[in-house]
Amino acid sequence: MGYTRPTPIQHKAIPLLLDGRDLLASAATGSGKTAAFLFPILHRLQDRPRGSTRALVLTPTRELAAQILDHFRALSAGTGLRAAAVYGGVGQGPQVKAFRAGTDVIIATPGRLLDHFQYPYAKLAGLEFLVLDEADRMLDMGFLPDVRRILNHIPRKRQTLLFSATLPAPIVDLAQRMLRDPATVHIEPKPLPAHGITHCAYAVPPELKTRLLLEILKQETPTRVLAFTRTRHRANRLADFLGRNNVPCGRIHGSRSQAQRTEALAGFRKGRFQVLVATDIAARGLDVVALDLVVNFDVPGAAEDYIHRVGRTARAEATGNAYTLVAPEDEGGLRAIERAIGRRIPRKTLPGFNYRQKAEGRFEVPLAERIAAIRSRKREERARARTHATLRANKHARPRTSSR
């Protein structure tokens, strides 16, 4: 598989885990932590009796669960060990079967796992290993209460591993509750961002962002582009625009079904889509080989988000480009990112692009207008309902008789 030497997190964590220690590890996305916990778990499971689930990996997103499952299957070839992914958006039948069969390793998102815990078949009495991956991302997505509920369903006597890119106070508190005399491993992230990334920022009016991105794609013809937007609505609008302009494009965000997200990611990896438009759900844990350009269509709200976004390119000592499209109102956010990463991001203009051209229309209807339109539509629906109710009442009313 190309493993020749351990990464720093693997070098420090694997011996501790083989010794049975609980572990609190801080390591950046892309540092090799998936193999850091899978290698020792596989090693310790392969000679033990089968027939019950002995390892549980909790992860915040469906994509990351599927990716860990792929890593497991590659690393476990020849051992006979089995794993299953448990997450929402797909049928529960195969997942129920995995629980009943006592699949060796379950990789799950918290919400769907709790759904299964309502039923007798989803008992994990034989569990020996619990891994909490991307713990800070779980905090951001509001999953920590679910994690605490899950702890009530699994044995207290177990080896617990908690991995997190950062260690905010709620994560430290959770670690104190979950872990017994843990070893601590902190891997300082590489100088941020990675050395192989070429950064630049394009100042552009907000209404011309789509046209500028389209022109960048025409001039530079990158093979695989990951474009990040601020919201699901904007992701849909950008993907629709690129599709209308003959750019093969997929999209991935929280409102898409699991089948749609899987299809988009598979099409992107296989080269059917030149561009994958995503919200920050794809910023962590997404493993795409030969990704040569990341575009921040919207400036991220925090420097950490910027690092995770652009970190999808230039992985494994490769090179890549990161472009940020900056509207005038975004300049303050970009300067905050520059202060955090300790460098200035060069500003560029695209040769031949008319920055004063007239926009074809607004890219996005402002939120206030969308809310007003929804409220207006609901008022009209209520008025129509009242009218229909009055007409029905009049139709069925008894005619009055004369009192002569």
Summed up:
The protein is of the alpha/beta class and 404 residues long. The protein has helices spanning 8-18, 33-45, 62-75, 93-101, 110-116, 135-140, 144-151, 169-178, 209-220, 232-244, 258-269, 303-310, 331-341, 367-396; strands spanning 23-26, 55-58, 83-86, 105-108, 129-132, 159-164, 183-186, 197-203, 225-228, 249-252, 275-278, 293-296, 320-326, 347-348.
Question: Any idea of the CATH topology of the largest domain?
Answer: Rossmann fold
Give the name of the CATH superfamily of the largest domain: P-loop containing nucleotide triphosphate hydrolases
Number of domains as seen in the coordinates: 2
Supply the helix-strand structural class: alpha/beta
The largest sheet, given as strand count, sense and whether it forms a barrel, is: 7 strands, parallel
Number of helices: 14
Strand order of the largest sheet: 3-4-2-5-6-1-7
Shape: globular
Residue fraction in strands = 15-25%
Rg, nearest Å: 26 Å
Number of strands: 14
Name given to the CATH architecture of the largest domain: 3-Layer(aba) Sandwich
Which stretches are low in confidence, meaning pLDDT under 50 for 5 or more residues running? none
Helix content: 40-55%
CATH top-level class of the largest domain: Alpha Beta
Q: Output the helix-strand order.
A: HEHEHEHEHEHHEHEEHEHEHEEHEHEH
**What is the average of the pLDDT values?**
86
Query: How far apart, in Å, are the first and last alpha carbons?
Result: 101 Å
